[in-house]
Amino acid sequence: MTEPNLDLPLTNLLADHAPQPWPALLRLPTVLSAYEERVATLREYGEADGITLRAASEGAFLNFIKSNAYTRQASLVLLDNGNLRAVWKSDDGSHVGVQFRGGQAASYVIFKRRDHGAETSRVAGKDTLDGVRGQIRAFGLEQLMSG
To answer: Phi, psi at residue 32, to the nearest 5°?
Structure first.
């Protein structure tokens, strides 16, 4: 094992020498900060357009990100109903979209490109956030959201 360079910040040392999933977890505060800035911007734009961001939607979104250590940043939009919708996309056309309706309630859409061919599996529905996590696992898309 190589000796760590003690001149580097602690975060770098931990990320360089810790087993997975620690590097992803170390990115989580940066991702959360970026999301908080985006939510503040969406709140401001929404208010200018007469749309109030629902606190229950915001809380559900932030809890979803924190509880799963989803560190790949999603596109985040404010819908006309005041809910947040996050979308993660890959270069191959796979896609996860989740509308946070508050509490554990969510609407989702998942597109998964098959490995060998042009076929894309699609599923959409309403479920709990735990159910959405299960769908993400079932489609093998955790990496899409975790970077």
So the answer is: -60, -40
